[in-house]
Design a protein that fits this description.
Layout lengths: L2 H10 L12 H6 L7 E3 L6 E4 L5 H13 L10 E5 L4 H15 L8 H4 L7 E7 L5 E4 L9 E7 L2 E7 L8 E5 L4 E4 L2 H4 L1 E5 L8 E2 L2 E2 L5 E7 L5
Antiparallel strand pairs: 1-2, 2-9, 3-4, 4-13, 5-10, 6-9, 6-13, 7-8, 7-10, 11-12
Bound molecules: 2-oxoglutaric acid and fe (ii) ion.
Protein name: Fe2OG dioxygenase domain-containing protein
InterPro entries: AlkB-like, AlkB-like_sf, ALKBH7-like, Oxoglu/Fe-dep_dioxygenase_dom
GO biological process, one term: DNA damage response
Length: 226
């Protein structure tokens, strides 16, 4: 077992523990977690969270595929970007997002976004060491509506705050490993999002300080046509 798999096993237990994947081959092939429950983040239209998007096994496979790309061998490099043809693991992830969204009877993503071709053609993988995060921002307008973020490894709190000075409270969302968030409409254009993992940050969830480790995120977007 390589270091990453060992690390995941230590954190989450063996993926085969108590799970008989043979009974549910379809789910496992698709990499769908135990349940694909979607939560609408109240007070932010267009923000949806699926905590159990990826099974432990799929998280481990995805992490290995990302690390195999060799993007993060130098400590100074913590971000990789790809446009157009995405690596096969990212295309599979995009397909899985589409299937998962399609299979629920909820408007998790507006149909015109869900069925555009391709769903995503831009990929960013960020690797954050403990203490590192991302400043409050609205994603650039050169990207279309409909943004997906998949989280791996350390959980973190992502804070949403209104982009314009309006009377609305900030909203914290816990991005646990294996989770997927989708932002569209107001969530994408009218709210900023940030992750502050500095000492004076906000990595507290349900009263407990989050034990920070490396966090890897995969952001999928679609470029606007020129
Ligand atoms: O790492 C994340 O979860 C967020 C990344 C992000 O917001 C971005 O790249 O625009
Ligand atoms: Fe962003």
């Amino acid at each position: 077992m390589d270091d990453e798999a060992e690390h995941l096993k230590a954190a989450f237990g063996d993926s085969s523990d108590g799970e008989d994947f043979a009974d549910r081959p379809e789910k496992e092939t698709l990499g769908i977690g135990d349940s694909t429950v979607w939560e609408r983040v109240e007070s932010i239209n267009g923000l949806w969270l699926c905590r159990s998007f990826l099974s432990i096994h799929h998280q481990s496979e995805l992490l290995s595929a990302i690390l195999k790309e060799g993007w993060f061998v130098e400590e100074s490099i913590n971000q990789a970007m790809r446009f157009g043809d995405l690596p096969s693991w990212a295309t599979k992830l995009s397909d899985l997002i589409q299937e998962t969204v399609e299979s629920v009877d909820l408007s998790v993503l507006p149909a015109d976004l869900l069925w555009r071709e391709p769903l995503f053609d831009q990929l960013i993988v960020n690797s954050y060491q403990p203490g590192e995060g991302i400043c409050a921002h609205v994603d650039l307008l050169r990207f279309e509506d409909g943004i997906a973020i998949v989280s791996l490894e350390s959980p973190c709190v992502m804070r949403f705050s209104p982009a314009e000075a309006v009377e609305a409270e900030d909203v914290d969302v816990l991005l646990s490993p294996g989770s997927l968030i989708l932002m569209s409409g107001e969530a994408r254009y009218q709210w900023k999002h940030e992750i502050n993992r500095k000492e004076n940050g906000f990595q507290v969830w349900e009263g407990e300080e989050i034990d920070q480790k490396r966090r890897i995120s995969i952001t999928l977007r679609k470029l606007c046509q020129a």
